[in-house]
């Protein structure tokens, strides 16, 4: 960071490619007439989770149905520094691309009735094609909470082998070490043979040293390798980038060399899961809203991997959801369940420099375009950035579910109260991070990863081509606002450290005039956005706690239907989600295969 460079505070909440057609190891279908009459497995959605599960199951006949298609490997898809340009609220690139569902939540009362865009991948590879490529995991405590919520086998120790199975890790470039950057890692926490590449950027922004030193001044521990479950602190992060050519690594690469049993139907949208007498019989799909609808039979299971926002929509359209709501739309209820939602690139102005650095990337795959705009960030417990006693007192003073929507069903309310108790307890924990502080070359970005607020996703009509109603209910619990205010003030504390003042960092936004608690709250409400880590719309919880799937990801009350995507996450880990989702999908594939191995053994 050059001397005198400005820095602003931005606030967020929670969320080498070859020709993909040629790389796909199975058969690509373009129309319904090419689909076989039946398959052992039908996977709904060709995003991260869907591709992983389909690949692992394709010893048997598998059909993936995906509404989108393949990318054309545009620069803003493949080049790391441009990676966030196609996501609303991040970057300065094209918005509303053909690879996005382009959905927007309803107006949020706590945000001045602003509507927040909620990107979701409409493309083979899903969110891995659109995301910021951060590849990190949460703390051990984050995943161990899943077991505490009634999900045996989903703690960090049991997930770690699956995290590693998905990953193909590359240690830091020797040139980076020669430049004096001490990046530590432990190979015991990384995989070497997976399909998704994880690597450290070969270019380190000079201001990274100042950020590291600022953390040391503030007594924040520097974690050796956060991938091992100790992720509460500051650390170097890996990115899902192929170090051989410094381009995005996506779930599109999650293929084995030849999978003749694997079929992929593109450009078609699943409209309904066909259920008869409590058992899944098939899937209905269509290319367009007014086009004829086709069906395919399923012999073993449907794996629903449509994503956090579309999975609950399909469940409801198929008769799985709140009976009162479904009845109001004339949909016959199959199972009365409820679904819910838990809700940085440099500002370059020197065009000559930009052109020079882009030319360096194109010729040698070196320089700042190999990065995401930063190399280092912090995930911090409450006690690091705030008065934990004050926040704990405010949490204890609440009736645990008083800020939920008034029409929240009793089972969901009970599940939330169990989650609230864990969130309340962890306010005093030193191993559970609540806020992320992203450091890029021009900004400090605080992001909330342990929200107390909860929202909903629901259908508004019987048409699967209508977008669902997305109501994240941001800041509906005032504890989230208090966390953001504390995060804002801590970002200022980082700026004031000697390490940051040696490069004369100044605040340009919102500026020194914003000083009172009320002014900071107004700034938060006006500027808060989403980090796109939506989850929990079909949670893995006991049914009496409002759960939709059991610990083997089977939908309650329906035989032959599982969910494998971020919607099953019962509580968010303090991490960007893709590395966690790869592990979930790998574990899910084993759960599915093992269940049929046990069944066959009984025959």
TrEMBL record:
<keyword id="KW-0285">Flavoprotein</keyword>
<dbReference type="InterPro" id="IPR036188">
    <property type="entry name" value="FAD/NAD-bd_sf"/>
</dbReference>
<dbReference type="Pfam" id="PF00732">
    <property type="entry name" value="GMC_oxred_N"/>
</dbReference>
<feature type="binding site">
    <location>
        <position position="123"/>
    </location>
    <ligand>
        <name>FAD</name>
    </ligand>
</feature>
<keyword id="KW-0732">Signal</keyword>
<feature type="binding site">
    <location>
        <position position="270"/>
    </location>
    <ligand>
        <name>FAD</name>
    </ligand>
</feature>
<dbReference type="GO" id="GO:0050660">
    <property type="term" value="F:flavin adenine dinucleotide binding"/>
</dbReference>
<feature type="domain" description="Glucose-methanol-choline oxidoreductase N-terminal">
    <location>
        <begin position="307"/>
        <end position="321"/>
    </location>
</feature>
<dbReference type="InterPro" id="IPR007867">
    <property type="entry name" value="GMC_OxRtase_C"/>
</dbReference>
<comment type="similarity">
    <text>Belongs to the GMC oxidoreductase family.</text>
</comment>
<feature type="active site" description="Proton donor">
    <location>
        <position position="533"/>
    </location>
</feature>
<dbReference type="InterPro" id="IPR012132">
    <property type="entry name" value="GMC_OxRdtase"/>
</dbReference>
<feature type="active site" description="Proton acceptor">
    <location>
        <position position="576"/>
    </location>
</feature>
<dbReference type="Pfam" id="PF05199">
    <property type="entry name" value="GMC_oxred_C"/>
</dbReference>
<keyword id="KW-0274">FAD</keyword>
<feature type="signal peptide">
    <location>
        <begin position="1"/>
        <end position="20"/>
    </location>
</feature>
<protein>
    <recommendedName>
        <fullName>Glucose-methanol-choline oxidoreductase N-terminal domain-containing protein</fullName>
    </recommendedName>
</protein>
<dbReference type="GO" id="GO:0044550">
    <property type="term" value="P:secondary metabolite biosynthetic process"/>
</dbReference>
<feature type="domain" description="Glucose-methanol-choline oxidoreductase N-terminal">
    <location>
        <begin position="121"/>
        <end position="144"/>
    </location>
</feature>
<dbReference type="GO" id="GO:0016614">
    <property type="term" value="F:oxidoreductase activity, acting on CH-OH group of donors"/>
</dbReference>
<dbReference type="InterPro" id="IPR000172">
    <property type="entry name" value="GMC_OxRdtase_N"/>
</dbReference>
<feature type="binding site">
    <location>
        <begin position="131"/>
        <end position="134"/>
    </location>
    <ligand>
        <name>FAD</name>
    </ligand>
</feature>
